[in-house]
Structures are given as structure tokens and as C-alpha cells.
Design brief:
5-stranded mixed sheet, 492 residues, 6-stranded mixed sheet, alpha+beta, disordered C terminus
Length: 492
Amino acid sequence: MSTHTHVSSPKTHQMAAPLTPGDIQSICSLTPLQEGMVFLQTLGEQSSTAYIEQVCLVLAGNLEIGILENALAALVAKHEALRTVFAFKETAKSRQIVLRTRSVAVDFEDLSTLAGDVQAQATACERIALAQRQRGFDLARDMLFRLMVMKLNEDSYRLIVTFHHIILDGWSLAIVLGDLFSEYGRMLVEPQSTPIRATSPTVPTNRDFVDWIEKQDHDSAREFWRQHLKGYCEAVGLPQHPCAQAEKTPQPAVHCKAIPPELVASLEECARSLRTTMGVLFRAAWGLLLQKYNDTNDVVFGAVVSGRSPALTGSEGMVGLFINTQPVRVCCEPTTTLTGLVQSVHHSYMEASAFEHYPLYDVLNETLLKKNLFDHVLAFENYPLDEQFRGTSKRNNLPFEIVGTESHEETNYPLNVVINPGAEYKITFLYDAQIYSEANIAHFAGHLIRILHDIAHTPKRQVADVSLLSRSQAEGMVKQYSVSTSPYPSQK
């Protein structure tokens, strides 16, 4: 076992001197969501940890820090996104700059002396992980992807992956981490082998995606979104704290709700019968939930889209930030059936998919409500990390197993509703506890499950007849609030 106990300072991950032309491999524009992130940062309208993502992998077995550092170097050499910095302060137009090389280091913290005190060790792990997030990133100078290893005992480690969302989306992270473990396994067998230098020229890169976006018909996209959101003039939302103050420092909180397996099976059968996707079912259900809470039949919320168009060959294997956020409008009559609602949302989804590349800030500028169009987003994840890493150790002959994963993400929205598919479906609410109470978030989760149940089991029910309460809950409320039939005592 390696006795390497290097603990790097923040400067290890930062360029030591200003860039020279010889340092630069390429320069290109930003993707729509990257533009939005940079814009918010220049305005100071996001917290210091917004868009800083973190994944913790629990490893059981033997981990060599030196080999991991070499694997990281190979990873950075292969993927341009990991060598990218951003210029936006001294330039008229923001640019992403791919460097030819970047030095790497793996931070290390030995917590094995706390092995006898499980609580103290867990507290130390949380403190260190938080410090990694709070350290933040300088987009113009830092390497925007960091690894830290915490040794818990001789055969137990935590690998902390911290990165800025501006260089990677979740799909890309799965590719990058898969490559990291593949390189680690290769270096165990071929310790003197030369790292893979760069992506094959035949594989599209993030620059190909940017070029593809710039060639799209932006006039048609602008007109589509203008017509799609025409006449929408009253934003909707969900109950907040009476004294909610969004300008305060966010208090990130998480609430998870498992979806019963039998309901998942029914929803999958429903999606197949309607020739749509699970993602569309969740969009329809969330839209109906917002309608019920706001007593309206016309709502708009934000949704995350993959951005990986089938028109761009090889996009499924590209690494970078391809996702985008787009408005979803759910409008229906009270007599519309749940099947009709799903079909309407599916139709809108298919229409909008041709224009999902269009920047959100440009979409908002075409609306009456501008940046107040919506205050939360819905995301359907299609890269469950738990399943991604199942079998990783065996495939790469690794001397350790990945026995657990944890993740932390924070966006500029106070509420993010994330649907996590996989062997077990769950709904994760990432919210600002300064704005939403835990009790209300739990109500949102329960009501969403209730609507999904109706979509799966009573598809011919009209939306006006859908209740957020179960029959037993409704009966309980009737009993609680019913007027007493006892005679009023006469005055004496």
C-alpha cells in the first residue's frame, strides 16, 4: 500500500502564470447554458457554490494514490473539457479556451486515525467535502475538475470528485469517471504505458457541438418560442415560507421520495401504450400539480433537456456541457382526460425538441415575464451513477469495489425536482430551506406520487376530477371541518 500522504494547496490546481499563445490549443464560443452561468457570475446573482457539483464514491479495497494521479493525468490529456478555462472579464464576448496541457494532483487526507470513532470520522468527511465545495473555482485560471481521496482505514476510502458544472453535465461525468477507472486498471497492468493523449479526430468534441449550434436556424427557434409562450402573463409557483427571503445565503437541503416499484411498472406500461417516455409522464404530472396548486389550467415551469441532438453524429459519446433549460408549458381544459394531457405534453415535447439548443436567456427575452417566467426546474436523469458503476471493478480488474455513491449539486434555482430512474425510482427535491419548508416539500412529493398514480391507473379521468388527496385524506378533512350537528344551547 502506498504511503503517499500529499495534501495539495489550492494553488496546485491553478495556473502559475498568465497564458501565452503557446499554451492554447483552441478557442471557441460557449454553449447556451455556459453563457447563462457566466452571465450570472458577472452579475453576482448566484451563491459562491452554485453550479459546483460533487460526487463521493465509497471504495472498498486497495487504492494507490500514485496510480490514481497518473490515471487522472491520462484523463485530462484525453478530454478537452478538463483542460478548459473561460475568458469573460477582458473580452467583449465570452470564450472557452482549451489548453494544451494541465498539471494535475490528487488531494489526500488520512482519516484512518479516527477509524475507532465512526461519528468523528463521518463528521470529518462531511467537513472536508464541504470545504472542497466552498473553495469554489476561478473559471479563468483553475482546473475545474478536482479529485480528493480520504483514507478511512487500510481498505476503505472515499473518492471526492468536485467540478464546476460549466465543463460537464451528468452524462459526461459518467463517461469521464468510466474512463478514469479504465485508465487506472490499464496502468495496473502496464505501469510504464503512455497515457492516451487525446480524443480520436473521428470522435466529436465540445467544439463540434458549439459549431453545430452556431449553424442552427436561430430565427426559426426564436419564432417558435415566441409563439409557444405567447399570452402567458402570470407566473406560477409553490407555497413558500411566509417570510422567505431569496437574497439571503441559500441553505441547500435535500428530500428524497421513493416511488413504489408497482407504480413504476404501471407507469412504464402506460408510457409504452401511449408511445411516449417516462420523462413526458413526469412532465405532465408536474404540470398538473402546478395547475392544482395555482388554481389555473395554464402553467409554465423549467425543464432540463439533454441537448444531445441525433443530428450531431457521435453526440452520445461527447464530453462537455450539452444540457439546456427550456420552458415547459402545460395548458389544458378541465374536461381533458389524463391521457389527453399526456398526449398534449408529448406533442409539445416533440415540437420543442427541434429548438432545445436555443439559449434560455433569449427565450426569456421574448416573453412577457422575462426572467420571472419560472422559478424552479424539473430534470429527468438518464445516467444513474449507481448502475453506471455496477461491474466497473470486474471489467477493469480493479483492486477495489465501488460500494456506494453520494452526490451534491446546487443550481441558481431555489427548487430543483430531479427524477432518478434505475432499479429503484426516486424523486429528489433539491431546495433552499430559506424559501421552502421541509413539510411543504414532503407534501409536494406526496401529491406528485398521487397524480402519477392516477395517470397510470385512471387515464380516462378528467383533470378537473384529479385530487391531490387520497380518499382517506379527503374523508379525514371532511370530518375535521364539518359543521357540528349538535343543537346550539339556548341562552338562559
